[in-house]
Amino acid sequence: MRHQHSISSHEKDSKSQFLKVPIKVWGMIFLNAAYSFLAYKLITFNQYAEFLNQWKQMPFSQFWWLAAVFLFLPFNWLIESFKWKMMTTHIQKLSLKFSIRAVLAGISTGFFTPNRVGEMVGRILFLKPENRKAGVTLSLVNSLTQNIIMTFCGIPACIVFFSVTSGRMKFNLNLYLLMVGVFLIGLCLLYFFLPNLSKLLKNSPLALKIREFTDCLGAFSFGELIRIMLISLFRYIVFCIQFSFMLRFFGVELNSWQLLISIPTTYLFVTFTPSFAFSEVAVRGSLAMLIIGTFSNQTVSIALAGMCIWIVNFVIPMMVGSVIMMRKNKL
User: Fold this and answer.
1) Model's pTM, two decimal places?
2) Which residues pair with residue 85 across a beta bridge?
3) Long-range contact list for 98-106, CB < 8 A, 24+ apart?
4) 247-267: string of b/e by CB count within 10 Å (b at 16+)?
5) Residue 275 confidence (pLDDT)
6) What DSSP designation does 128 have?
7) SS3 labels along 35-73
8) 169 by DSSP, 3-state: which?
9) Which of 97, 92, 91, 106 is nearest to 78 (CA)?
């Protein structure tokens, strides 16, 4: 019994020491891992020849499309920063500038984690220590809103896409849409029930253990939840516009209708494909070729467009965020 007690005590001590590791240390661990994985991906990338060949053949007039993609980049992350500022308003007032830093730092720490769940590490680093547990919950809810929007917009586009391309792709559409539809309903119910769930948990036996994580949810009104969702929709539209511009840059000629159904369908599949941010370039490229490629035989150009939109929207902000993280850790 004494031996078992000593083992139990040792496990508790180990867990305690694990939890006491400063958030700044975890941030640097995540940051170093992100750069290691990025270096690995760049070294093992095998399409440099196709990329350079495509780049050399690009007429100068096409570069306006690339300039437009970059023009939307700060707009993209400004929207996300404004949303994070709004989400944290009940626990801590953040300036927009401070919120931008938190969002970019989150990109760097989420780069090598599944579906970027590690973003919370960078984001909560910019919150006061007493608000960081609530920040974890709010970061997860923030990701939830974007997934709901991608699903909500992707399902109609997916239905139309497979109706138009019937026979070109073998796929159990009904089963897929049923699963995604049920998942969407579940996400929506969970999202709009969060304030009530927080209040219910206050009366549960678990209240004392989890209230630091859940109390922040009870302050949101239905109107605030709707506004947060609309901001997520606005950002999603920016994503789609950037992707369409990148396809135009690489000379992929699709009409507006084809873009309107193929891009949301691609994002829908990306959303429900487990991946790491550093490996999304392969996931996005392959899914883009599969889906957008049904309207065009320019598969190399489509794959390169998927790769470059990943570089613009994730690699560049990740590098900026890493600088912010390192400066923050020096303070």
Assistant:
1) 0.79
2) none
3) 98/126, 99/126, 101/126, 101/324, 101/328, 102/126, 102/127, 103/77, 103/321, 104/77, 104/317, 104/320, 104/321, 104/324, 105/27, 105/321, 105/324, 105/325, 105/328, 106/139, 106/321
4) bbbbbbebeeebbbbbbbbbb
5) 53
6) -
7) HHHHHHHHHHCCCHHHHHHHHHCCCHHHHHHHHHHHHHH
8) strand
9) 97
Q: Which residue has the tokens 């070109």?
A: 168
C-alpha 264/C-alpha 267 separation (Å) is 5
Closest by Cα among 33, 56, 220 to 118: 33
State residue 63's pLDDT score.
86
DSSP label of 126: T
For residue 117, give both structure tokens.
């769940």
Task: Kindly give, in sequence order, each residue whose CB lies less than 8 Å from that of residue 65, ignoring residues fewer than 6 positions away.
Answer: 245, 246, 248, 249
What is the DSSP annotation of 199-210? HHHTTSTTHHHH
Say how many C-beta atoms besides its own lie within 10 A of residue 72's C-beta. Answer: 16
Q: Residue 174, Cβ neighbours under 10 Å: how many?
A: 9
- Give the C-alpha separation, 19 to 279, whole Å: 29
The number of beta carbons lying within 10 Å of the beta carbon of residue 234 is 15
Residue corresponding to tokens 């579906």: 115
Beta bridge partners of 169: 166
Which residue, chain included where needed, has tokens 């996931």?
283
| Residue 114, beta-bridge partner list | 276
How far CA 259 is from CA of 46, 141, 143, 239, in Å, comes to: 27, 29, 25, 13
Q: Which segments of the chain have a pLDDT < 70?
A: 1-51, 54-56, 112, 114-115, 166-173, 176, 203-208, 273-284, 329-331
The phi, psi pair for 112, rounded to 5°, reads -115, 10
Span 115-155, pLDDT tens digits: 677 788 889 888 998 999 899 999 999 988 998 999 889 88
Are the beta carbons of 266 and 292 closer than 8 angstroms? Answer: yes
Tokens standing for residue 124? 């909560």
